[in-house]
Amino acid sequence: MGFSKSISASIKFSLPILFLFLATCFLPNLVFATDDGEQCGERLANVTSENDMAKMIRVIVGEENKEASEDSSHIFLEKRALTDFLKADDENLVLRAPFTVMNAAQRILDLIYSQGVKKIKLPITGEEVDFYPFFSEGNAITNGKLIVGNEKVIAQVVNNIRAQAQGDRSAVSIPLLEGSHGTGKTELLKLLSIGVENLTAKSDSKFANYTYSWVRLGEIPSLHRFIPSTNEGGSRVYADLGSPLGDSPVVLFPPEIQKALIKKSTKTVQALVSMDPTPVLKLDPISFFIRSQIVQHYSEKRGHPLSANEIVEVLNDHVVVRRQVIGRTYGNMPLIEKQPDDLDIAGLFMTPNPVVRFASGEGPTHPMAWYFNGKILSGHGNAIQFDELLRNPPALRDMLLGVFESREVSVGGAQTVPFDPVILASTNSANIQEVKQQKNGTGDAILDRLTPMPMRWSALPSQIIQLLILGKQKETYQQPLKEGEEHPVTGGKIYDLVPRQEGLNRLVTSDYRYRIWFGSGADKVEVAPHTLLMMSEIIAASRMRTNPEKAAQVFQGKIVGSNLLINPIDRLRLYEGTRPDVTRDEIRELTEVTKLLKEGESGISARDAGKWLSNAIAAARGGRAGNTLTPGVALATFREMLTDEAISSPSNKVRLEWLGLADEVVAQMLIPRLDGDISKALANGEQVVKSAYWDILQEMWAISLNPEATTYISETGGQERPIDRERLAAIKEIYKQKNGRTLNEGQIAVFHANQKGLGIKEVGRVPDESLLDAIAQYYAKLTERVAGFGALIEFERTGIGNDDVKMAHTSLISALKAMGYNEVAVKDALMLINDQRSRNRIN
């Protein structure tokens, strides 16, 4: 907005409103968001009283942000003097607010470190990486929002920020987050925006952030023609001006005092980010000009050049230090989306000031001839992300290349403006290839300044379930499935329901541990066991690259012909920790080849996965679904959405492949689980089967130590008991039929030894699921002699059966409810198992 428009407006509006109009030009300290969350250009100017400030905050922030404005309005009203940076230690502002002597990367690093850092092992590979709860745990600082998976890429981004914080940022490549939507690329900036806002808005916080405003500028005659003014009561009143870039007040001090302040704050900053403070101390052209005019005015008035202390003294009379909140709502971490070919340079960088350029007689090179109000410059001192960077017009890419290299901005003859942000960029793989193929060579130049960091859709069922729940977290509820008294219902917690996997640890889900549902009241939909796991497996399988010919084009190794690569079901079993026979070399090769094939760039997208869950929940609320999301409901919804193209597939061939994968997942993953649950229930409950498990385990170990052994020590009773070799042989045969391999007692022993090594107490040990299922099926067959499976199905359908069948059905329902089923889920499981058995008979 130009000066002329602002001045003419002053005739009709009061002074506070005039300053609000001027805000876009002079005060980047405070930016607010529109209804859709996008940052506006409006900025809050200085007003004549604290009352006006409080009123204006309420008006601008609006009802939807009422709580935020009331909580932090005292911060906007907080005023300090420049000399507060020179006070004794207890009151010294540079020690109380170390942000004021940090560069942008150090600030962001401090923000991330505030929630700690720890070491974790990645799923499958077991590789140890730094783990940052700020991004990955959904804590209060980020309003519960988080990024699921991609921990290694997040660690790489933080390492890059650390490199920027330590030295010459122009020598550090920009992280280029490569992948499709829904992988967390733009979530990094969103989390930083939310976090910095929450922390800088805290009272008495070490994250307090300060900037400055110029005041009493009417006392400096040489500035009159550059400053907006009004005539009040016959006197000319000149406006206060905010720091154009929202800089720290430390930039205003003479160099020798700046050095002293940095030295004074070094221990404080080292304790926070493990490095010395290295603030960017170059003044923007407007502030440099105003500061120079003030110093010159008083130097001429006093008749001698001012000393450093005198400069601070006179600046103190013309500077007000103000605290500011930065982040998402008030805006200083912009997301720059792809720009059109007709670039809005002014909107991106800086806008001409026509009053200074023409009416005052000054040209475009004058420091006051520009407003530094562009969206890109609003990221100065914080973070900025260029989304779809490589799709921008070449002209903008060339401009940005200069910005990346110099960390300075100069447009249209304007003086150079210092630019100190943490810069992130994002794109997809296709755009990288397009830029590489450009013949004019400009693509190579910008790619040289970028470090690609792939962020792809996960093919790990554990992370896919976490993402499905994350999309519904506000309407997810959980209740522990434990014996005894009724347990409280709480909001769904992702890592309670699906703990993070490490290495080849077995996947743990909510199944058998929690009863979960979406919504409440009449909209409540209970989730049947194994439903979310089945959905995640279908999604994961669709994302896998399994073509051996394509693998052979990029990799040489045994894995190219292995079922672990070719067969999605084998891969799922590996990812779920049920393939203990896989070697380290196989895992290493599989990891390498799937990276080379860019696994996770295709398949069912994150957006479609979320739509599938939403539609399945809606389907469960209607008809005869009984407000229960079962595997059957989810499968019917999946097929319908694929037919209606509500789940997008690149071709009909791929659509049919996904339907085939769903059938394979049902037949080889879901049905065995449901069958196992029925078997445990028919065997008089899971606890009975688990008790038998530990005794049978002791039998096997006794025989492994002495093949001629005839007795073992019972774990449940501590007594010596005879080994039942007939039972053991029958269980081993069931195991072989179910798993396609012979039971290896040594692997079972290693499985339990690993749990012991992790410090799991005896009471918390988890049985090997494959062996447990075989034992359950053995005992279930004993029950089926009285009431066969077919009779139970017939009773479920028709209610007809003899007393033995009725008793067996009642017992079945009771046992399955203890595992998290309700009656609708039981019926769905029985029907799915029966359908599968019927198909097998036909085939």
Offer a concise description of the structure.
With 843 residues, this protein is an alpha+beta fold. The chain contains 34 helices and 26 strands. α29 (725-739) packs across α31 (769-784).
Topology:
Blueprint: H1 3-9, H2 15-26, E1 31-33, E2 39-43, H3 50-61, H4 66-77, E3 79-80, H5 93-96, H6 104-113, E4 118-121, E5 128-131, H7 133-136, H8 151-166, E6 174-178, H9 187-200, E7 210-214, E8 229-232, E9 235-238, E10 241-242, H10 255-273, H11 285-302, H12 308-318, E11 319-323, E12 335-336, H13 345-348, E13 351-352, H14 354-359, E14 370-371, E15 383-386, H15 394-406, E16 408-409, E17 417-418, E18 422-427, H16 429-436, H17 442-448, E19 450-454, H18 461-471, E20 476-480, E21 490-491, H19 494-497, E22 514-518, E23 525-527, H20 531-543, H21 548-554, H22 563-566, H23 568-575, H24 584-596, H25 606-621, E24 628-629, H26 631-643, H27 652-682, H28 686-705, E25 711-713, E26 720-722, H29 725-739, H30 745-757, H31 769-784, H32 789-798, H33 803-817, H34 823-842
Parallel strand pairs: 6-18, 6-19, 12-15, 15-18, 23-24
Antiparallel strand pairs: 1-2, 3-11, 4-5, 7-10, 7-11, 8-9, 13-14, 16-17, 20-21, 20-22, 22-23, 25-26
Helix pairs in contact: 1-2, 3-4, 6-8, 11-12, 15-17, 18-20, 20-27, 25-26, 26-27, 27-31, 27-33, 27-34, 28-31, 29-31, 32-33
